[in-house]
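Re: [help] complex structure
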Amino acid sequence: MAEAAIRATGIVKWFGEGEARTTAVKDVSIDAYFGEMLYIVGPSGSGKTTLLSMLSGILRPNSGSVTVEGADIWKLSSDKLADFRLHKIGFVFQDYHLFPRLTTAENVAIPLILKRENWSNAIVEAKKYLEIVGLKGRADLPPVKLSGGEQQRVAIARAIVGKPDIMIMDEPTASLDGDTGQSIVRFVKENVLNDKRCILIVTHDDRISEFATRILKMEDGRLIGVEKGGSM
Amino acid sequence: MKGILKLAYKLLVNDKAKFTALLVGITFAVFLMIAMTSLFAGVLYRASATVINLGASMWVMDPSVQTVANTIGMPDYVLDAVRSIPGVNYAVPVYSGGGLVKLADGAYQAVNVVGLDDTSLFGRPTLTQGKIEDIYGENAFIAVKDTEFPKLNNPAIGTEFEVNDHRGVIVGIATVASSGLFGVPTLYTTYERALQYIPNPRFTISYVLVSPKTPTDVANIKREVQGLGYLALTKDDFMDKISKFYMFQTGLGMNLLIMTIMSFIVGLSISGQTFYTFVLENIEKFGALKAMGTKSRELILMILFQASFTALTGYGLGIGLCAATIALAKMRLPDYAAMITYWNLALAFVMVVIIAALSSYFGVRRVLRIEPFEVFRG
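Output below.
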């Protein structure tokens, strides 16, 4: 691990106003490094997803700063922030959010199409990544024809096809059985993680803790501890 | 940008049920809008049939005339006075009035009789059978072979009948550009014979048909005719006056306008609601695209493209359906007056654009409000 991919300093996020105000993240500071697979764990409502959203440029913190590769992302205009997410971040959503009316290859090609790549080239590239995630021959199927684990692999292929520096995975094993979940995370660690990429994973699932580089523990919006991977 | 539009296209078209519902809604709305307005255009065109068929570039009439069917006779001196106006190349009288024909089988049939200037026969129809000079023969009439022709029992040259108890004989069969609005056959004869056969008030000239020497003479002729206490209109002015009468003084225009607006509202309701539902059903997907780095203006572009594509496809289908329906209707109902004009198409296009704009407006508002965080949180 060398330079910090993401550095969050004193970030706070609250929702609502007045008596209805709830503070979801309270003065959290973290560093995440290239080559690292960092888990954020904690009980429901502890602020994990809120923290991850602020780190990935989706949710603006009320105070504090988030720098990615040295640049404060929350000082960017909304267009530049969108460009930042498109070029720097790969998302794997908890519900995958695959488009049921598109083929698997078209789903994977979306980040490339958003980057103005030619449609045909994007599909060719997407097929390569489907092969990487072990879904060769599934390119022309709609996602609904795939199993949960296969859909998760499609989501991973979509997240990495744009070659992002940072990959964000929200509860990647939540809707998968234990074996499939483990195989997915193992696959990510072995095939997606490299020393130029940082992977942040929010999870409840202690069966996949062995794959983490570090584990950040959250409770009630605060960071309460950092552990090495495999000891969750 | 092409890729994003293709993505929007696939998201729209691959949702076959929604896309079909959207297309049906817009096609139906366009069909109704064009059907209503084309019917109106056809009625207005036919209302000016005599003006179109006689083809004179200027018409002199009593100022109280509202339509070509309701003539008010003018005294003979008007014809002489018009002929003496500087800039008039020539001016001829024409008679237009109703007669009652007794057919060979004893049945009676109302007809429109047009009496052409005896000297020039100005405004004569195109003959398909017979010779025009035969119109000077005894009791001679020319029958117009239009959609009303069968009401005269499909006469041939030599067929005899009675007009207002006078003997008449068909000496020619002719065609004209437009059939009349009121469903009666038309017979052409000479001006003098028309006066003999049709009972008339004291003044007998229905219109004076004028040919100006140059287009610049039109204004002067109008002014001079006004000085005589009469009205001179160009062909287009007269057709416009007739159209305005039917539009604003008969209730026909208002009723058809209401039907057109109802078609628009039906189209807007079906398409707007279906499109908004389509956006709502995909709202999480739009949110995911936003999270992945799609800019707001690209999402707006996608929605506008989807709405425009649906609207224009529905517009084309609606026009095709309407044209096919009119063609079929005319095969079965020769009197069916519908006529698709560029104005009908333009009006329907404007309404379709409004439907697309309103449908996409609400979709865009919803998509712009979606926070990627809400999608991310699940």
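Chain A touches chain B at residues 49-50, 52-53, 58-59, 78-79, 82-87, 89, 91, 93-95, 97, 99, 101-102, 106, 110-111, 113-114, 116-119, 122, 170-171 (CB under 8 Å).
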